[in-house]
Amino acid sequence: MEMPVVEVRKHGVWLLAKTVDQYINRILVEEDADISSEGNADLFHAAADAGDNLYEKGDYAKSQILDLDVYLLKKVGLFPDVLERKVMLHLQKGDHVSALVTGEFYTKKKHFPGFARPFAFNAEVMLKIGRKLEAKDAARGALKSPWWTLGCRYQAWAAQIISLFHFIVLCCVFSSFLEFILLRLESYPGCCSDSTMGG
């Protein structure tokens, strides 16, 4: 099984690519597309054989696809930030239908399994468009995934999407879960001693 490439951020992890090869491929394409970059040859040289198997320098120009994001989605793979940019572009143009369709595509479980960010983002988009009930459904989908994959602070995000009552219930459940975990950890000798807890 391939390992995803993630970036650790303040409020959890952000998915950069589903595989290392996909991430390298993206970097090479972006570098090739950046005509102002002088370090272009160095990057391709550093990628060596691995890069040659993934992307051949000049393929982006040969494709005649003018939009880099479109090229990445068609030729390299799906990336959360690229899909989010596409949705936001549709919203800026006032094309709510395309924004909703792209947002729904983003949430397909086969694309980014185990990550809550697609659902959280889709809920935010639906809320912006005025579809509160659907936004709540998307929010529930997000909260079924690990909260550290939301891509934002869960308290602030959940508070704007779900009612105060539901938010309080979620916080109580989450704090009870944390207490349960801590109690279980304390039952293991030496697990939570002062020396292991940094105290």
Structure description:
- With 199 residues, the chain is mainly alpha-helical.
- It has a domain of 59 residues.
- It contains ten helices and two strands.
- A two-stranded antiparallel ribbon has the order 1-2.
- Strand 1 and strand 2 form a beta hairpin.
- Helix 7 runs antiparallel to helix 8.
- The protein starts with a strand and ends in a 13-residue tail after the last helix.
Architecture blueprint of SSEs:
Elements: E1 5-9, E2 12-17, H1 20-33, H2 40-54, H3 59-63, H4 68-76, H5 80-92, H6 96-106, H7 117-129, H8 132-143, H9 154-161, H10 164-186
Antiparallel strand pairs: 1-2
Keywords: Membrane, Transmembrane, Transmembrane helix
Percent helix range: 55-70%
Q: Going across the major beta sheet, what is the strand order? A: 1-2
Q: Would you tell me the structural class of the helices and strands?
A: mainly alpha
**Major sheet characteristics:** 2 strands, antiparallel
**What is the overall pLDDT average?**
79
What amount of the residues lies in strands?
5-15%
Radius of gyration: 21 Å
Spatial gap, N to C terminus? 38 Å
Q: What letter string, H or E per element, gives the SSE order? A: EEHHHHHHHHHH
Overall shape: flat
Total E-strand runs: 2
| Count of helical stretches | 10
User: What low-confidence regions span 5 or more consecutive residues with pLDDT below 50?
Assistant: 195-199
Transmembrane segments: 157-178
Keywords: Membrane, Transmembrane, Transmembrane helix
InterPro entries: PAB (IPR045287)
